[in-house]
Amino acid sequence: MAIKAFLFDLDGVFYVDQNLIAGGNETLSYLRDAQIPFHFITNNTTKSRKKLTQKLQQMGLDVLEHEIVSANYAGVLLVKQLGYKHCKLILDPAAQEDYMRFQNETGPIEAIVVGDIGSKWNYALMNELLQDLLGGAQLIALHKGRYFQTDRGLTLDAGAFVAGLEYASGVKATVVGKPNAPFFELATANLTCAPNEIVLVGDDFINDIQGGQSMGYRTVMVQTGKYRPALAKKATVKPDFYIPSIAALPQWFEQQKNKKSGKN
User: Fold this and answer.
1) For the whole model, what pTM was predicted?
2) pLDDT 10s digits, 29-53
3) Domain 83-175 fold
4) What is the distance between the alpha carbons of residues 109 and 105, in angstroms, rounded to a whole number?
5) Domain 5-43+178-261 CATH (choose: 2.60.40.10, 3.40.50.1000, 3.40.50.1240, 3.40.50.720)
6) Terminus of the chain with fewer CB atoms < 10 Å: N or C?
7) Sheet containing 87-90: which strands, arranged edge to edge?
């Protein structure tokens, strides 16, 4: 089956912290020249889609706003769909921009929207949110990531705190981002191809590889970002392919085309 589109994770695939991974822009240029569509799918919840695009462009990544589907953006669509008007936002200020319409009501909190707030988590905040949940609020987690890559190594992610709130309150979170099917469906809504004609490229065995395979995509694991040989050895989920980094994708893609055509 021919490859007709790509889905790319961002963090760990195209950059780590504020540093671009070599070869990313060249890969994007290759795909644009070949007229192969792609979208960036990210569990980033620290910025609005506009601000995330600006950040990536300032870092030097050749990306456009309409190419990005983020968990933060998907969360806005979900809250609107569910009809909530009064939400408590556990989000970085830069991520709250798109949610302001849901903070204009007085009265009981209908939902808590949880994203990434880094080291701002503490006992007092967890207990405050527990009281809201026990009072009837719903829990919306923009993702349940376990950890993410920084220049200091792997760092605890928001999923640990979401799991703690679920455990204490008995309220099950509605999870928005990867690896949940609705997120992938949103990301591929305007791609006119079958699932097995889509390749997902990521650095996370659960959010990217398992999530993509559950949708019927082919999957490629880059050996950058979160990738660790020890984690790969223990993983029960295996990608269809490994490549050293995003820079190697054009060569890999040409190899796949040659196999399809029977060339050596």
Assistant:
1) 0.80
2) 999 999 999 999 998 898 888 999 9
3) Rossmann fold (3.40.50)
4) 9
5) 3.40.50.1000
6) C
7) 87-90, 111-114, 138-141, 174-175
